[in-house]
Design brief:
- It is a single chain.
- Helices cover about 75% and strands about 0% of the residues.
- By secondary structure, it is mostly helical.
- The chain has four domains: about 5-55; about 75-295, no CATH class; about 365-470, no CATH class; about 495-595, no CATH class.
């Protein structure tokens, strides 16, 4: 009794500590102007929950609201009628949860299955590399010890690792494939039951809702039998859980026609199906935990380790050249980089742009300057013409017209010049040789001025080209940075992205839907109803992924109403296969969000 006395204050102190977050939150709510908010109520509920309650399922914690996914096959009149009664509304929420959680589980299984299938298609060296380097540091040490210590046991150690990898990958693929098939069949059964409920315009809720719940319960029972018959599922459950197979609860048989269901019957049946759904989530989580692909940190741990080592060495090198170690190298490098950047900006951005601006917006000033230079050349040309005219008139002793050709008069000058050169000294003093020389000098001056004028015009005409050439390095650098930023912003996020790869993936989704529909029809023709049902479930899963991928893009192009109807029609169980194939062809070639990208990079 004495030992129990001090234990009571400790328990009370523990209770106070546990309830402290909730008390603090109530104080905060009292200080806020309004606590009637969905966010505040959610946080209040989070603090009010006891920390000692049982753990929830991992898959259930990742539930999303079905605001964008393949809808249930319900007629609009059926939905409106169901919303009238509370029982029907609860049943619709139950169906929505089943459909959402099974599709999410199929998506998780599909992602892991694609990973292991890609590893199974790898070469001998790729499988060995995966076993050694892509499963984490522990696996690396284990395989390294195996390689060094067991070279002569069971043949080559590399072959042993390869056989181990092939066996492990094959086992995981087989397990995930079976689990996917079972869930796909279950999804197809539930979808078919809902389709029966939603077909009619006028419905009797008192009869249809109980039969629908009973049909869903039968689907859980059939799923339990299917999983129990699978040896792979039983082996994994034996390794990871206490029971060998999953067990679902069953709704007691009630004659719907004679005894209508009461509200307690509906609540009991719905709660029982929810418990079965939670058991299914736990079961799928235990299977996937054994077959889950390695995490990104495990896959790339070697690259991350090398990067961390390189970053550490780089940090140490920077510290050695920093002020902390008494060095001014980093400051000098920063200053030089700043000066180089400023010089590059001025040389390749600022000055070329200013030059282009001056060339484009100061045309009149440059044109006026060009007119003056041309007038100077014209003055030299007129002076030469007058000199030639005077020399020719004096030499020939006749009057020449004012518009006489300069070429003819130059011939007279050159002819006189050749005669005068016969006695250069005598003619230099008393002859016409000096005048002939001066005329040739004037002609040379005119030719030089004409050539300079043409060269100046060529340079002025190419000033923009020179400025553009100077700005090309900065232009290319800007284009590269823009492309990198654009690729980072508009990065493809699977089939829901906006790039060319996303368009290709959306088209591949349609191709996959078309293949699954054809396989479904082949199984039906062969009388394999179970395989056909499994394939129909995979069709529904692919249609859900397609629905999510194209919704935002089709809304942007105003194609969503028509495309949505076509996708829903592809999921109708009673629709003929030829009509479904024509729908997939139309989706491929008509809708803009499904067409190939027009721009190729």
């Amino acid at each position: 009794m004495e030992s129990a006395a001090p234990a009571r204050p400790l328990a009370e102190a523990g209770a106070i500590v546990v309830s402290l977050p909730a008390r603090l939150w109530k104080i905060i709510l009292s200080l806020l102007p309004s606590s009637d908010s969905r966010l505040l109520r959610a946080i209040s509920k989070l603090f009010s929950e006891s920390p000692y309650r049982g753990d929830r399922s991992n898959l259930r914690s990742r539930r999303r609201l079905r605001n964008s996914g393949l809808p249930l096959p319900l007629h609009s009149h059926a939905v409106e009628s169901a919303l009238v009664t509370i029982e029907a509304s609860r049943v619709l929420n139950l169906l929505d949860d089943i459909f959402n959680r099974v599709l999410e589980s199929l998506h998780i299984i599909r992602k892991n299955l694609e990973f292991w299938e890609s590893r199974a298609e790898g070469t001998y060296g790729q499988k060995v590399y995966f076993m050694v380097f892509e499963r984490g540091p522990k696996a690396f040490l284990k395989e390294a010890i195996h390689l060094t210590g067991r070279r002569k046991i069971e043949g080559s150690a590399m072959h042993h690792i390869h056989r181990s990898a092939a066996s492990s990958i094959s086992e995981k693929i087989s397990t995930l494939t079976i689990l996917q098939s079972c869930l796909a069949s279950f999804l197809a059964e539930v979808y078919a039951e809902v389709d029966k409920y939603g077909q009619g315009q006028k419905i009797d809720l008192e009869k249809l809702l109980p039969s629908l719940l009973m049909g869903i319960n039968d689907s859980f029972t059939h799923l339990e039998e299917t999983l129990g018959l699978s040896e792979e599922m039983s082996e994994i459950q034996t390794e990871g859980c206490n029971s060998n197979a999953i067990s679902f609860e069953k709704i007691p048989e009630i004659n719907v026609t004679s005894t209508p269901w009461t509200d307690s019957d509906y609540i009991g049946a719905i709660n029982m199906i929810y418990r079965n759904l939670n058991r299914l989530d736990l079961y799928i989580g235990s299977i996937i935990s054994k077959c889950r692909k390695p995490r990104r940190l495990s896959l790339y741990w070697l690259q991350y380790t090398c990067g961390a080592i390189g970053l550490s060495l780089c940090t140490m090198w920077l510290l050695r050249h920093s002020r902390l170690m008494g060095s001014s190298d980093i400051d000098n490098w920063i200053r030089e980089a700043k000066e180089s950047t400023v010089a590059f900006w001025k040389s390749h951005v600022e000055e070329p742009l200013l030059s282009i601006r001056d060339e484009l917006f100061e045309t009149f000033r440059r044109r006026h300057k060009g007119v003056i230079e041309k007038a100077d050349v014209q003055l030299s040309e007129n002076s030469l013409h007058r000199m030639l005219l005077a020399f020719s008139e004096q030499t020939k002793g006749q009057k020449f017209p004012e518009d006489a050709s300069d070429q003819e008069m130059l011939e007279i000058v050159m002819s006189r010049y050749e005669k005068e050169l016969a006695h250069p000294i005598q003619n230099l003093i008393g002859g016409e040789l000096p005048r002939a020389l001066l005329i040739q000098v004037q002609k040379l001056k005119l030719d030089v001025e004409t050539a300079m004028l043409e060269l100046d015009q060529i340079l002025k005409a190419n000033e923009i080209n020179f400025a553009i050439l100077a700005a090309l390095p900065a232009f290319f650098l800007s284009v590269i940075l823009f492309m990198l930023a654009r690729a980072w912003v508009t990065k493809d996020k699977g089939a829901e992205g906006r790039g060319r790869i996303a368009r290709i993936q959306r088209r591949l989704l349609v191709v996959d839907v078309e293949k699954k529909i054809m396989e479904f029809q082949m199984y039906m023709d062969q009388g394999l109803e179970e395989d056909a049902q499994r394939m129909f479930g995979l069709v529904l899963y692919r249609l859900d992924r397609l629905y999510r991928a194209v919704e935002s893009h089709a809304k942007a192009t105003n194609e969503w109403s028509s495309l949505r109807k076509d996708i829903i029609d592809l999921g109708k169980p009673g629709l003929p296969t030829p009509y479904k194939l024509s729908l997939t062809s139309r989706i491929h070639h008509v809708y803009d969000c499904m067409l190939p990208s027009r721009t190729r990079f």
